[in-house]
Design goal:
Radius of gyration: 15 Å
Strand order of the largest sheet: 2-1-6-5
Helix content: 40-55%
Strand content: 25-35%
Order of helices and strands: HHEEHEEHEE
């Protein structure tokens, strides 16, 4: 089990973004993903700052867990935002489409490139 991913789930609970019950469900899915499937496929979101040439964020979750997390995204919270810039895409729809098709999505904004993909 990846300690960093468990810490992310615990931080969501601590920050009040998900309930303790939802955190328990996420951890249960996380444990089940690693113990039953053995799948190494990861859902990856990378934010690259084109001005600095550095990666600002690189989030990786098991595909099954990312799919499960999508169930907790409320429609009103599903709009993409990078800093204060709103991206005209629905994160929940993008997540579902990338998982379903396995095809990458790239979004470019003023100075940032967001890549969403499945990695083996």
């Amino acid at each position: 089990m990846d300690k960093a991913e468990v810490t992310k789930i615990l931080k969501l609970v601590a920050d009040g973004k998900i309930s303790p019950e939802q955190g328990t469900d996420l951890l249960g899915e996380f444990v089940e993903t690693y113990s039953t499937t053995g799948s190494k496929r990861k859902f990856n979101i990378e934010v690259f700052n084109m001005n600095s040439g550095k990666i600002e964020a690189n989030i990786k979750l098991p595909v099954r867990l990312a799919s499960f997390v999508g169930n907790f995204i409320k429609e009103k919270d599903a709009d993409f935002k990078i800093g204060n810039e709103k991206i005209d895409m629905n994160i929940k729809e993008v997540l579902e489409e990338v998982i379903k098709t396995g095809e990458s999505v790239e979004i470019e904004t003023d100075g940032r490139r967001i890549t969403i993909r499945i990695e083996d």
